[in-house]
Design goal:
This protein is of the alpha+beta class. It folds into 2 domains: 102 residues, no CATH class; 128 residues, Aminopeptidase, CATH 3.40.630.30. The protein is 26% helix and 32% strand. The protein has 6 helices and 11 strands. Strand 9, helix 4 and strand 10 form a beta-alpha-beta unit. It is globular, with a radius of gyration of 19 Å.
Length: 238
């Protein structure tokens, strides 16, 4: 199996093991860091372990196919997710002034992520790697950063631009800086994008990324005991 075939599980067992909560079959990041979780294999034991992590908070899984959820679980959101890997080629040099984002920028980072929905982003996501931003008149207009890390690879994530500043090349600028940083460290950049986001995919292809695999993104959650009881009562009343 290729390291990127199960990237979340691989990251939580290698370069980001210090973030890992879990055991033999399921591991996840703390909910404040990111909702991402991974399975060693699609087994009932994996769901049982996941249920006990992060107080039952929703978990985002990158799966090979749509899940067959055990009883008591629900799929809150799903989407085809394209994995793309960087192939060495020329790309635009940064032409905007950028800054490294830190803990003091977290409220703006979270607000921008909530507005643009680039993927799971929490109050401690910035701890996963370097995050860069571009400001316009003092406000955060765009950002991008590093998320998953597996041996030899680093993921670019949270690529987002405020709607008022789309089309200015901010995303390409920030990604170019991150690409060069990763390559200088001997890492190959990769990323994940919703398969229907054709605008983003076109940008990533211009920067040198090529599709590698399509996952099934599933955001799942174990229903609380009271929810399960209510559902059972409702079913009996039909």
């Amino acid at each position: 199996m290729h390291l990127l075939d199960n990237p979340i599980w691989t990251a939580l067992n290698t370069r980001q093991a210090h973030f890992a909560h879990g055991g033999t079959w399921a591991r996840r990041f703390a909910a404040q860091v990111t909702a991402l979780a991974g399975f060693a294999a699609m087994r009932r034991e994996a769901y049982e372990e996941l249920a006990g992590l992060a107080d039952g908070a929703p978990a985002a899984l990158f799966l090979q196919q749509a899940p067959d959820l055990p009883e008591g679980w629900s799929e809150l959101r799903q989407a085809p997710l394209l994995q793309m890997v960087y192939e060495k080629r020329s790309h635009p040099s940064p032409r905007h002034t950028w800054i490294t984002l830190t803990e003091v920028d977290v409220p703006e980072m979270v607000a921008l992520a909530e507005l643009t929905q680039p993927g799971p982003f929490g109050t401690q996501t910035y701890q996963m790697g370097t995050y860069l931003g571009i400001r316009e008149q003092g406000r955060l207009a765009a950002m991008a950063g590093e998320r998953l890390r597996v041996p030899g690879y680093a993921e670019i994530s949270a690529v987002c631009t405020h709607p008022d500043h789309v089309g200015k090349g901010y995303a390409a600028c920030l990604m170019s800086v991150l690409i060069e940083k990763m390559r200088s460290q001997g890492e190959t950049p990769f990323l994940h994008v919703r398969a229907g986001n054709t605008r983003a995919i076109a940008l990533y292809e211009r920067l040198g990324f090529r599709p590698r695999f399509q996952f099934h993104l599933a955001v799942v959650q174990r229903q609380a005991a009271q929810q399960r009881r209510a559902a059972a009562v409702a079913e009996e009343g039909r």
